[in-house]
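Internal ticket - ligand job 536, adenosine-5'-triphosphate:
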Amino acid sequence: MGPVIEARGLTHAYPDGTTAIQDVTVSIDEGERVAVIGANGSGKSTLQLALGGLVEPTAGTVRYFDETTDAEAVRDRLGVLLQDPDDYLFNTTVREDLEYGPAQLGMSREAATQRVAHVAAELGLDALLDRPPFRLSGGEKQRAAVASVLAFEPDVLLLDEPFGAVDAHYRDRILKLVTDHEGTVVLFTPSLDVVADVADRVIVVGPDGSIAADGSVRDVLTDSTLLQANGLRPPATVTLFEGILDADDVPLTVSDARAYLLDELG
Amino acid sequence: MTGVVGRSVESITGALRTVFTAEQVASADGLLQRRDPRVAVCSVAGLALAVMITRTIAVTLCFGAVTVILARLSAVPLRRLLARSLAVPLVSAVIVLPQVVVLPGDTLVRAFGLSVTVDGVAYVVLFTLRVGVGVALLSLIVMTTPFSAVVAAMRELHVPVALVWVIAVTYRYLFLFFDELQRLVLARNSRTTGRSSLRGGWRDAKRLVGTFLLRTLDRGERVGRAMQARGGARPPSPYSRSRTVDRGDYALVALAVIAVVGSGVVRWGL
Ligand SMILES: Nc1ncnc2c1ncn2[C@@H]1O[C@H](COP(=O)(O)OP(=O)(O)OP(=O)(O)O)[C@@H](O)[C@H]1O
Ligand SMILES: [Mg+2]
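stdout (structure tokens):
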């Protein structure tokens, strides 16, 4: 399976001179589950926009599906969800927002109706479909935004902090939708607690916007020194078991930790 | 930002923001809601055209009455319609106001060495009325038909893509503009206490305008990206809501045709 996204020497500086990402070279293969982590302001969102072809890089190139450098040519296969739902939802009703992507990207009406009904039900949006998006609560907006990107069934999901304001119930629902996604997933997030649930591979963006590490989820999440140097803190389970268990055995998720404890306690 | 300026900015933006939301009314059951979107777009555009042709106050007032009746039959509250369509004619009234002294004719009153003419006043009144009724008609369609259905109807009617694009983008940005303004005012109000003088209020308001423009531009850029991320760079192509045209549809089209023809006959004769 070839790379779905391949970036070389990607650099982006905003017009005011802020260099948000620097010389990023990454390759993401089909079906991979990747988390991109980094402190606030490290450049995760900018990297997401650059990988999704939504900002013009100052230097470097991005190649999609080993066939083109033009993101618009493969727009229907890239699911780029922006960080702020207030930017992402721009239609007059939630339903129109859910249908926007499918309609613009050429999904048949029947397929779209089915798909929209499915994601709306999964994310508890049925009663909100005729409401204007800006009248929703923070978590409802977030759910509507996630539903809007899932609605057109992109192959590659590039999700910037999709768990933002949602409560525990819907956080699990979104988590499930993301892990059940059949294609590639790239999750951009500053909070490491969900990372091990979603990803096998973790990329750390350093404070200067360059890639500080790129490795397996276990190698990165158990490396407290690396994480701290980049303004991050290991997940709670790692902190809890660090020094008690080998790095190879430290549970990365709460459910793993619970299984381990139950096992130990007989 | 409290005080008079703050409060008025808040209420104006609040009002304008609701003005740009169609919700509920679009899903209510009424005359225009039941029309095929293509028919609704065409006939309302026809009526607006008829208003633009008109050059007499009486005929314009007739169209005003037609607009009010259509609104009533479509469960559109008149106050909402009025709020929505008042701003544009008021601005255009200010722009054409100098005509009251520029246009030659019988003098109505003399003030400051200028004579206000009957013809000038009539012109300004007629102009403002026409713009007002025209805008009210267009608001009516936006309030009774989901915006994506309006866009889809325009595409089906072979309106040039570039024009549909401009209309779709403008509508979304207008909305964004008021949303951003209200957010900013809310954020400011939550961080200021007590009463400020009128002058302090104005100083604040000026700063607010600067911040506001920057923020709107920034937000516009981000929303632009969000559209692009979901295929916004391609021509607008929402799912159509067209159906087979029924008797009510034909009746509305007939009304629009009669309006255009009638308006033309009154202005140019047979
Ligand atoms: N429109 C902009 N103009 C100028 N600088 C910007 C702009 N957007 C972001 N930046 C700057 O670029 C850098 C990276 O921002 P970015 O939004 O990519 O960070 P992030 O890692 O996503 O942070 P967070 O975790 O807070 O979402 C920051 O220093 C930020 O201040
Ligand atoms: Mg970010």
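Auto-summary: The interface with chain B takes residues 49, 52, 54-55, 72, 75-76, 78, 80-82, 84, 87-93, 96, 99-101, 103-106, 109, 112, 130-132, 134-135, 148-149, 152 of chain A (CB under 8 Å). DSSP finds eleven helices and nine strands in chain A.
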